[in-house]
Design brief:
This protein is 26% helix and 41% strand. A 5-stranded mixed β-barrel has the order 1-3-2-4-5. The chain is globular and about 40 Å long. 26% of the residues are buried.
Length: 140
């Protein structure tokens, strides 16, 4: 294995990928899954979830570490191929801050896009991940 294959990168997930078991089912090996939040963004859902800059907002999700190869394989899937990496500062429950990658759409979904099935699945994943109850209720 090369250094790039072995090295693990913190990634902040805010959509269905915050389910570590779902990532394992795809043949990935996420390590150190932890609840986290990223400030300065709001969640917007179209066909899938995306983040939009909003200074007073925050998005909750999961911080996990994946190898470069795993990240490449995950975001090569057709449904998420348009997502691009951005640097964020993820805040853990203990207030520690960790620089991480976060994959986001270059052009966010419009306000009129709707995917009720995705919203329901995301609420279920968010609740299982132990995200704040008031946050889970606001997912739409």
């Amino acid at each position: 294995m090369t250094g790039l294959t072995c090295r693990r990168i913190p990634v902040f997930f805010y959509g269905l990928f915050m389910d570590a078991d779902a990532l394992r089912a795809k043949g990935l090996h996420p390590v150190h899954p932890r609840r986290a939040c990223v400030r300065g963004f709001a969640l917007r859902i179209g066909r899938r979830a995306s983040l939009v800059p909003e200074p007073e907002a925050s998005v909750h999700g999961a911080l996990m570490e994946l190898s470069h190869d795993e990240i490449d394989r995950l975001y090569a899937e057709p449904s998420v191929r348009e997502y691009r990496p951005e640097a964020v500062l993820a805040e853990l429950d203990d207030a520690a801050q960790i620089p991480a990658l976060c994959f986001n759409l270059p052009v966010p979904p419009s306000h009129d896009q709707e995917n009720k099935e995705y919203v329901q699945k995301l609420k279920e994943v968010a609740a299982r991940a132990g995200l704040p109850e008031d946050y889970v209720k606001r997912i739409r």
